[in-house]
């Protein structure tokens, strides 16, 4: 049993992924129309909530930091540089009102409050994130970002979405040919929350034109094949289908926004993952007791064993390296 525990912990702590990929099997399902459901989001984000916050901090930031080629920066410095960049690009000052779609554990809400004296409202579909943010005193709500209106929380000076866009289109909507419709409707929703000239910061992973069609994904394919890696990436982002490159995003935003800035964060993303890996390996009794608890699922669930492979292989990192995926930072302005 001791050897089993050691192997499991070793696999778990060699993570190179950017979001906790395990299920909260007891989560309440909030079925949203189309996009990844509340259960899907909890599947990705909630169960390892405590382990990740023990490792990386109470307001852990699970999105790519901003090194801009200076990898001598610490992860904390690079995440802070990202927050400053976002706030500067969105012209956020004291008294500004900002809504964040997919606020995570609240790192940007914390920055807004402490560094800019601005008011932030966060939306999430994760129980773990919601409870954590509320304990910290952040104004966070469990709500589908695609359905928010000014009647819910009022209007804002700016909109932020870091990582959440990856979940906005479901596999079913993609197969129905509705992906661009989903994005256009989302941008319409975002535009309805801010005035003309208001800005929207979007950070997301995308597919490249080399991504395989969904029907080619095969979890039983050879483990070094693109078919297997893509199938494993679907285990990492259950229920979700990514946009095809920045052009699809910009095109679907055009009725409501003009492009102000765009850059690829692929290299920064990979460096961020390396730093997370180091932090996850740091020993603590409480953290390793939680790893031990996960063994129950490891022994009972085939699906959980696939997710162990997510940790071991890091399919998103491999997809970046094989040019199957990219990562973008985009600033829009409402027209």
Kindly report the name of the CATH homologous superfamily.
Vaccinia Virus protein VP39
Question: What's the total helix number?
Answer: 15
Shape: globular
Query: Which structural class matches the secondary elements?
Result: alpha/beta
Order of strands across the main sheet:
3-2-1-4-5-7-6
What's the level 1 CATH class?
Alpha Beta
CATH architecture: 3-Layer(aba) Sandwich
Arithmetic mean pLDDT: 84
Q: Helical proportion?
A: 40-55%
Q: How far apart, in Å, are the first and last alpha carbons?
A: 62 Å
Q: What's the CATH topology name? A: Rossmann fold
| Rg over C-alpha atoms, rounded to the nearest angstrom | 19 Å
Largest sheet: 7 strands, mixed
Order of helices and strands: HHHHEHEHEHEHHEHHEHHHHE
The total count of strands amounts to: 7
Low-confidence stretches: 1-33
Provide the β-strand percentage band. 5-15%
Number of domains: 1
Task: Summarize the helices and strands and which ones pair or pack.
Layout: H1 2-13, H2 38-45, H3 49-56, H4 75-89, E1 97-101, H5 107-116, E2 119-124, H6 127-135, E3 139-142, H7 150-153, E4 158-162, H8 171-175, H9 179-191, E5 199-207, H10 226-236, H11 245-253, E6 257-264, H12 266-281, H13 285-300, H14 302-313, H15 315-321, E7 325-334
Parallel strand pairs: 1-2, 1-4, 2-3, 4-5
Antiparallel strand pairs: 5-7, 6-7
Summarize the structure.
The protein has 335 residues and is α/β, with parallel strands linked by helices.
């Amino acid at each position: 049993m001791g050897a089993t525990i050691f192997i499991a912990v070793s696999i778990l702590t060699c993570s190179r992924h950017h979001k906790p990929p395990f299920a909260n099997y007891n989560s309440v399902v909030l079925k949203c129309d189309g996009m990844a459901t509340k259960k899907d989001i909890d599947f990705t984000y909630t169960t390892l909530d405590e382990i990740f916050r023990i490792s990386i901090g109470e307001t852990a930031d699970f999105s790519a930091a901003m090194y801009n080629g200076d990898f001598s920066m610490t992860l904390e410095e690079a995440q802070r540089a990202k927050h400053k960049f976002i706030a500067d690009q969105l012209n956020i000052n004291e008294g500004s009102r900002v809504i964040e779609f997919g606020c995570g554990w609240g790192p940007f809400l914390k920055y807004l409050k402490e560094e800019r004296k601005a008011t932030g409202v966060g939306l999430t579909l994760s129980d773990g994130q919601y409870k954590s943010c509320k304990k910290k005193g952040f104004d966070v709500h469990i709500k589908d970002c695609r359905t928010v209106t000014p009647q819910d929380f009022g209007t804002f000076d700016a909109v932020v979405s870091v990582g959440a866009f990856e979940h906005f289109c479901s596999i079913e909507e993609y197969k129905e040919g509705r992906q661009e419709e989903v994005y256009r409707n989302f941008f319409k929703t975002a535009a309805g929350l801010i005035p003309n000239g208001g800005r929207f910061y979007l950070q997301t992973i995308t597919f490249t034109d080399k991504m395989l069609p969904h029907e080619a994904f095969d979890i039983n394919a050879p483990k070094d094949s693109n078919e297997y890696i893509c199938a494993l990436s679907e285990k990492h982002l259950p229920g979700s289908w990514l946009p095809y490159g920045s052009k699809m995003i910009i095109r679907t935003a055009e009725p409501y926004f003009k492009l102000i800035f765009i850059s690829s964060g692929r290299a920064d993303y990979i460096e961020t993952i390396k730093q997370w890996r180091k932090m996850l390996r740091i020993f603590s009794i409480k953290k390793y007791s939680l790893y031990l608890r996960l063994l129950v699922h490891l022994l009972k669930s085939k699906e959980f064993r696939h997710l162990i492979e997510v940790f071991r292989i890091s399919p998103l990192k491999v997809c970046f390296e094989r040019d199957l995926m990219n990562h973008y930072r985009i600033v829009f302005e409402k027209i």
